[in-house]
Design brief:
Helices cover about 40% and strands about 20% of the residues. By secondary structure, it is α/β, with parallel strands linked by helices. The protein has two domains: about 160 residues, D-Maltodextrin-Binding Protein, domain 2 (3-Layer(aba) Sandwich), CATH 3.40.190.10; about 140 residues, D-Maltodextrin-Binding Protein, domain 2. Strands 1, 2, 3, 4, 5, 6, 7, 8, 9 and 10 form a ten-stranded mixed β-sheet that branches. Helix 5 links the parallel strand 5 and strand 6. The radius of gyration is 21 Å and the shape is globular. InterPro entries: TRAP_TAXI (IPR011852). This is TAXI family TRAP transporter solute-binding subunit. It holds the Pfam family NMT1_3.
Length: about 325
């Protein structure tokens, strides 16, 4: 009888433990981009650590992800997401068209992840050397509802262009854009992603096998486009370089950079946010081994935007104070 009671108590404790684990859906991006693999690995880490029943899903990325946080969280399920900072800022302040009148004020940062690099990909010999050369060309500005699309449209605006200046505009994700460029139905495409992005690595290798070479359009760090971004999004938009050995380009490519955020809703319980953050940073080696861009996911980088426009989740802040990343 005593043994039976002990077994019942053990099952009750186990059941309570499972009940306390939040169901978390990680909204990521398209296959071929870094977000998808980062989110998938994070879900695996959280499941193994027992801090959540987590799964990653493919999406169009940042803007769609922020909409999911605002509209789908509830009933014991919490949507978290990988997002670009300018998209998050425009959604949080209600400046983005899809958030006008209903800003994404429930968004909370769990941690900063790694910098995205703006890729404007073309083939050498396509007559595209500068952003202005996109005029009259067939160009993809990224999937609808993606952070890439936000980056692309703002870049064009700063350069005095719009999609109306293209010969044809497409709105494709990384993998679809790379395929179209390789097949010759697209002249160039925008992509905002970590280094390396698998779809572009494959594109560069495919072009090389045909005796061609990938070209990445440079963004002058002292030019109008870069200065416009840095004024509009101080602290989160900057400049960096895509080294030539990443994709086998002929030269290093200066471009825009954007620090990605991992965000969750304010409704996520503090204990859950603390546990998710703790599990992430106690398993960084797993994340960094699986996703090259995650080498920049560190305690120091994670808190670099504390005090900015978008608040951090209190559960995450508690963990960062506990380990000394914040005072």
């Amino acid at each position: 009888m005593q043994r039976f009671v002990l077994v019942l108590l053990a099952l009750l404790v186990l059941g309570l433990g499972l009940a306390q684990r939040p169901r978390v859906v990680i909204a990521t991006g398209g296959v071929g981009g870094v977000y998808f693999y980062y989110g998938t690995t994070l879900a695996e880490i959280w499941n193994r650590a027992g801090v959540a029943e987590a799964q990653a899903i493919q999406t169009a990325a940042s803007i769609d992800n922020l909409l999911l946080l605002e509209t789908r969280t509830g009933g014991g399920t919490y949507y978290c997401a990988t997002v670009l900072p300018d998209s998050a800022f425009l959604a949080y302040t209600g400046e983005h068209e899809r958030f006008r009148g209903r800003p994404a004020r429930s968004t909370r940062i769990l941690f900063a992840m790694y910098p995205n690099y703006l890729h404007i990909a073309a083939r050498e010999g396509a007559g595209i050397r500068l952003v202005q050369d996109l005029k009259g060309k067939r160009v993809s500005t990224g999937a609808p509802g993606s952070g890439t699309e936000v980056n692309a449209l703002l870049t064009l605006q700063a350069a005095g262009l719009s999609p109306r200046d293209f010969g044809k505009q497409e709105r494709l994700g990384a993998a679809e854009s790379a395929r179209a460029l390789a097949e010759g139905t697209l002249d160039a495409f925008f992509w905002s992603g970590g280094l390396p992005t698998g779809a572009i690595t494959e594109l560069a290798a495919g072009l090389a096998r045909r005796g061609e070479r990938l070209y990445l359009v440079p963004i002058d760090p002292r030019g109008t486009v870069a200065q416009t971004f840095q004024r509009r999004f101080p602290g989160v938009a900057g400049t960096g370089t895509i080294p030539r050995d990443v994709y086998g380009t002929r030269a290093d490519t200066p471009t825009l950079t954007f620090w990605n955020f991992f965000v969750c809703p304010a409704s996520l319980p503090e204990e859950a946010a603390y546990a998710l953050t703790k599990a992430t940073f106690e398993n960084l080696s797993t994340l960094q081994t699986a996703v090259a861009a995650a080498r920049d996911t560190t305690l120091e980088n994670a808190v670099r935007f504390v005090g900015g426009t978008i608040p951090y989740h209190e559960g995450a802040l508690r963990y960062f104070r506990e380990v000394g990343a914040l005072r």
